Amino acid sequence: MSNTDSATPTLYVAEFIDGPLEGQIDSRSLVRGKHEARISMVAAVAGLESVFWYDEVDQRDVSGQLRVRYAFDEGESDPVDAEVDPI
Questions:
Q1: Which string of b and e fits 18-42 if b means at least 16 CB within 10 Å?
Q2: The pTM is what?
Q3: What is the CA radius of gyration of the chain?
Q4: Which residue from 5, 60, 68, 69 has the fewest beta carbons nearer than 10 Å?
Q5: With contact defined as beta carbons under 8 Å apart, do 67 and 58 qualify?
Q6: Does residue 28 contact residue 14 with C-beta atoms inside 8 Å?
Q7: Which residues make Cβ contacts (< 8 Å) with residue 17, sequence separation at least 6?
Q8: How much is the pLDDT for 44?
Q9: Measured between alpha carbons, how far is 87 from 70 in angstroms, rounded to an integer?
């Protein structure tokens, strides 16, 4: 089988190793055949939407599927405050 565009993977799996999304995974699109080194995720914390930034730690191939592990960037992310007053 030749390496054509139709045989090229278009998705990868992002694994969140810490922070508010610890233990979760997300299927993401490759852009020009590459994964993103830095990604943002939006999640609800205490009923409020928050933006969390994650940076690549490493990548590996698991049975032909690209999996990339990401670590939480607390300094660039919205604060995680479980004691938020209702609006």
A1: ebbbeeeeeeeeeeeeebbeebebe
A2: 0.80
A3: 16
A4: 5
A5: no
A6: yes
A7: 57, 69, 70, 71
A8: 85
A9: 32
